[in-house]
Every structure is written in C-alpha cells, then in structure tokens.
Write a structure and sequence with these properties.
Jelly Rolls; globular
C-alpha cells in the first residue's frame, strides 16, 4: 500500500509540474516578426494563479493566470526594428524567444493559388538563388482540421527568406512581402495559413456561418460528426494516397512491359481528360501506346513531352519507369529517355494516371505530346489503349477539411489575437458553382475575422480569379465570371482592396505560373490603400453608363492618364444585348475616360458586359498597364443564382 500511495503521489506531482509549466502557442517563436505601432499581445497557459512576467526589449508586462489556466501579456506599441528577445517567466519556469523583429505582419490565406510555392512557380531557380531577405520571415501553418476551435496550431515555425527556405513559401505572399519590404524598409512577417481546393466556408468561424441563411444549416450539420468520423477518414486517407503513389497488384511490373497484351482494352483519342473516359471516375487508369522510332533516332538521347497532365502520374518506356510525379505541382512535363531503354522500331509508352476529384488525363493541344530527338517529333496524339480498375478502388474520402469552419477552427482560431497589419487572400476557385452565394460567403468571412481579432477594420486585400478554361467563341454565361463579380462587390466593405489578374491566367492551368505579377498587384493595392503611397492607380473599374443614339457610353474610374489597349489593337472583350437578353460581341472605341460600345445587331441596347467569361479575350488597360476589372451593367439572373 505504501508503494502504491508513493507512486500515486509522484504521479500527481508530475502532472502538477507539467501544468505549472509555461506554455506559449506555436505562433510565437525564435525569429518571429511582431506587429509595429500596435499594442502587442502575448498569451499562453500555466497553472491558475501563476504570476507571469514578460520582457520585450526594455518593455515589461505582467499578468496572472486565470482559473482556466490562461494568461495574456500586453506590451506597448513598438517602432519597427530589432532584433529583440522576448522572455516570459513564471514562478519556476521561463520561455525565451530570440532574434525577434518588429515590423508588419500579414496573414496570407486561401486555397492552392495562395499556397503555390515559389519552387513551383515562374523562374523558380532564379528567384530562389536570389533570395536573401533576412528581414522577411514566414510561419507556414501546418495543415490541420478540427470540429471545435483549437488553442494552438498543429505545427510550424518562423523561418527567414533565404536560399534554403524560400522555395517552400507561398509564391504570391513572398513576392508581395518582398515588394512591401523594399518599399517600406521594415521587417515583414507572413503567417501563411493555406490549404488547396478549399471553399471559403471552411475558413469562416461557426458564429459567422450561423448568421447567414446560406450556411446556417450546413454548419449545424457538423454537430452530427464525431472524432471517430475523423479517425476513420484519416485511415481511409492514408490508404487513398498509398494507392495513388504506389501501384498495387504488381501492376507497375506487368502492365508497362513490352510483352503485355492490351488487345482487349478499349481505345481513346489522346489528349483527353477524365470526362472523355466514359463519364465521372475516381481511381487509377492505365494507358498504353506503341510508337515506331526511325533509324535516325538510334543512339540518341530522346525526350518525351506530355504537355500539361492533370493529377498524379507515372511514365514508363518499354517497361522502365521514367518519372513519378508527387502531386500536380510541376510546370514542365518533359523527360529524358536514356538511349539504352529504346530501340529502332516499335516501343511501348505507358502511363499510370490518377483520376481524382473530377480531374485527370492529358490536356490539349495535341501537338504538346510527343517524343523528340531535338529535330524530329513523333506524335503521341491519337489512339491509346486504356483500362480502368486494374488496381483496387481508392477509398471514398469525405474531405472534412472542406466542411464549414473546419479550417478556421484549426488554422485561424489559434492565431487570434496575434497582432497583424492585415490579410492577403487568394481563393474562390472552390466556390465556382456558388458565385451568387459568394456575395454573402466572402463578406461573412471578412466580418467574422475582424470581429474576432478586435483590431477594427484591418486591411483585407484579395486577388480576383484569373482567366481560366477554354475560350468561348460567343458571349455566354460563366460561373467564374459570377464569382469575380461577387469578389468585386465585396469591395463595398470598408478597407478592402482587390487585385485584378484577368490578363495573366492560363487556359489549361488553374495555377498560373506568374505569381510575381500577382504579388506585385497585391502590393500595389497595399501601397495605395494601406501605406498611402502617392501616384498609384488601381485598374480601370466601371462606374456608370448611359445610352446615347443606339450606343452605350461606359464610364471608368482608375484610368490614370488615359485608357488604351494592351496590344495596341482595337478594344476587345465587350458584349452587348437588347431587352431580349441575347448578347453579341460589340465594337468599342475609347474616348477619354469612356468607352463607346455598339453593335449593328443590337439597335436598342439594354446591357453591356466586359470580360464576362471563364477565359475572356480582353485588352482594355489604363496608363499603368493594369487591366480593366470585369463587369456587367445588367442584373439579370445568373447561372449560379438559386
């Protein structure tokens, strides 16, 4: 009994000591940046009643831990500078963070285009090699999701921008931060909290979602979920990626082999995407094609070009693996084929492609897929043999990270109330089917975050969706245009700003490579609205119109010293309609700060639209070279409106 009592006593003392230790959330750390010219909150946990003392440089702060184990220190506002040391002490414990800078802290959030890393964007090698910015620091918040608001992030640490680290940071946020640092000459901290493919609802708190009829029932539905659901989904997710990355049933040995018999497989004309493979499908598809190489290729090192495939894939030549992609991050998909793998005459090309989330396959055009010796090309377009279900089906994933509030709970709530300068945001692709609802969803997020931070209407700057998908030959409705409209309407909230990038997207790539320009345009918005720099103009934006003699005169703001076209040619991108709501491409002429729009097919014009398409052909710019923001003069019901 004495031994049992002694053991229990030691156990209780051990637990008490653990609780007594000072704990500080992971948003704080060595090399962090704290917000200048604002009171600086620092918080954490210890045993109730613990006297907490803090020093930051020469500033001191005190607090007492409450009954809930929480404490909060309030340091006075600092000017930009450093480095400082932050020290927090309790009764028998202290925590110290070194190399702390004071500057501007921006929270960078959204989905994959904000998450897209420097190493995967334009001029990656050049940009990383030139990355030496010790006063620009990033904290990349680890992916995490939760049913309830969490007190700490799942992981992440502050790191400076240098050749070892920059490649893994958000490209948009890096180029934004670099520009602001150069112009303001103050340290810049970026808290990057991003997750690809996620809707705006996942980033909004429960209270904000309950306040909107659009999301109230969906957030209430979360109440039926349990931790067991999360655990089961996590197990399925491990199996999911195991199948995607590791061929099953010895498939990678048998199927790519030259001797494999695929005569019974159906054929498909490549390039083709998942929708061309007989409708919606999720799983692994194997494809094979036999090509004949001429004698002139003998002894040469050849390259194979796959254009821009969607999703994960592995490439094989005559049974040998040439590459295996990890996720869908590569900008270029050309590979060297060693001479010993090839032979004159017939050779077998095999592809193992994951078809996931409605994507997968090889994107057009047909002339982007071939084998070449540098002078001659052998096309890979045309008939391929293909077969589904040669490997086990991938488990159904519930994607809880896309459920309302799940990412807010785990990746935003733990950051509050870390003092920030503002937010930069790039998201909307995952809400393409809900453009009309986005008019409420997006402002709800902004209001929700501002209410929680209690820093007033802090700057919230965001990127409007780029041009993407196929160019349509005639004016038509567009889900992406309706999301862009909702984003533009959100500027009615105070202290918001939008960067238009309708001219730098890519038809076949939802992740356009030119992140430098995206960061630059966000920095222009910040320069004008946040830092009050003179001489900065935003892109031309619609302010009004009137019909005069069967023509429509469109008035713009943000024209600078005048309007023009990017290519010096006639204005493109305008469509016009009468009361019948049938739109036709229109002629357009620039007259000062106005554009006169007309068409012989519309005698009595009622409405005008500009750049109203997934991937509009448009060229109107201002004197700063910034594109005109897409708009419409009508309020006719769109295709995403319930």
């Amino acid at each position: 009994m004495k031994k049992i009592f002694f053991g229990l006593t030691l156990s209780c003392l051990f637990c008490s000591c653990l609780f007594a230790q000072i704990r500080i959330p992971m948003v704080f750390g060595d090399s962090m940046v704290l917000q200048r010219e604002q009171p600086i909150p620092v918080w954490g946990w210890a045993s109730p009643g613990t006297q907490i003392r803090g020093t930051l440089g020469t500033a001191h702060a005190k607090a007492v831990t409450g009954k809930d184990g929480k404490w909060m220190l309030h340091f006075p506002a600092f000017k930009a500078g450093g480095p400082y040391t932050l020290k927090v002490s309790g009764a028998d414990d202290d925590v110290e963070f070194k190399n702390v800078l004071i500057g501007d802290v921006w929270l960078a959030s959204g989905q994959s285009n904000m998450e897209w890393q420097v190493k995967d964007a334009k001029d990656a090698a050049k940009e990383i090699a030139a990355s030496n910015w010790p006063q620009i620091r990033f904290l990349v918040v680890e992916h995490n999701k939760s049913l309830t608001p969490q007190q700490d992030i799942g992981g992440g640490r502050w790191r400076a921008c240098d050749t070892a680290n920059t490649g893994g940071f958000s490209a948009v946020a890096y180029y934004f931060a670099r520009r602001i640092h150069q112009e303001q000459n103050v340290p810049i901290g970026v808290i990057q909290s991003t997750w690809g493919g996620t809707p705006v609802e996942a980033w909004t708190g429960r209270e904000g979602l309950l306040a909107s009829p659009v999301t109230k029932q969906r957030i209430l539905a979360n109440d039926t979920l349990t931790k067991a659901d999360f655990i089961r989904d996590s197990v399925d997710l491990v199996r999911f990626w195991d199948i995607v990355y590791h061929p099953q049933n010895n498939a990678d040995h048998d199927i790519p082999a030259e001797t494999f018999n695929d005569a019974s497989w159906p054929q498909i004309e490549m390039p083709a995407l998942v929708r061309d493979f007989g409708g919606p499908y999720e799983g692994i598809v194997w494809m094979r094609k036999k090509i004949t190489l001429p004698v002139s290729f003998k002894g040469k090192v050849l390259t194979v070009e796959l254009g821009h495939p969607e999703m994960n894939y592995s490439l094989y030549v005559n049974g040998d693996e040439i590459c295996k992609t990890v996720w869908n991050a590569s900008l270029f998909h050309h590979y060297t084929i060693p001479t010993e793998m090839l032979k004159t005459g017939e050779n077998v090309i095999a592809l193992r492609i994951a078809m996931l989330w409605g994507g997968g396959g090889l994107n057009p055009p047909a002339d982007s897929i071939y084998v070449s010796d540098g002078a001659t090309r052998i096309s890979l377009a045309g008939p391929w043999r293909y077969k589904k279900d040669l490997e086990p089906p991938v488990p159904a994933i519930r994607n809880y990270h896309c459920y309302p509030a799940m990412l807010f709970n785990a990746m935003i709530h733990p950051l509050v109330p870390y003092a920030i300068k503002g937010v930069i945001w790039y998201q909307g692709e995952a809400n393409e089917n809900a453009g009309f609802d986005y008019r409420q969803l997006f402002p709800s997020l902004i209001k929700d975050w501002r209410q929680r931070w209690k820093q007033g209407d802090f700057p919230f700057l965001y990127v409007q969706l780029a041009n993407y998908k196929k160019i349509k030959p005639a004016p038509s409705e567009s889900e992406w245009a309706e999301v862009r409209e909702a984003q533009a309407m959100t500027q009615s909230l105070p202290n918001t700003g939008m960067a238009c990038i309708i001219d730098i997207g890519e038809a076949d790539n939802i992740h356009p490579a030119n992140k430098q320009e995206v960061g630059h345009r966000l920095a222009l918005v910040a320069g004008k609205q946040v830092y009050h720099q003179k001489g900065i103009v935003s892109g031309p934006s619609f302010v009004g119109f009137k019909v005069v003699n069967h023509r429509v005169r469109i008035r713009f703001a943000g024209t600078g010293t005048g309007l023009s076209t990017r290519d010096g040619k006639a204005v493109t991108g305008f469509a016009i309609a009468g009361a019948d709501k049938r739109f036709y491409w229109a002629s357009a002429v620039i007259e000062g700060n106005e554009v006169v729009v007309y068409s012989d097919l519309v005698a009595t014009p009622t409405a005008v639209r500009y750049a109203w398409a997934d991937n509009p052909v448009c060229n109107l710019i201002n004197s700063a070279g910034l594109p005109a923001v897409p708009f419409r003069t009508d309020s006719w019901k769109g295709i995403t409106q319930p």
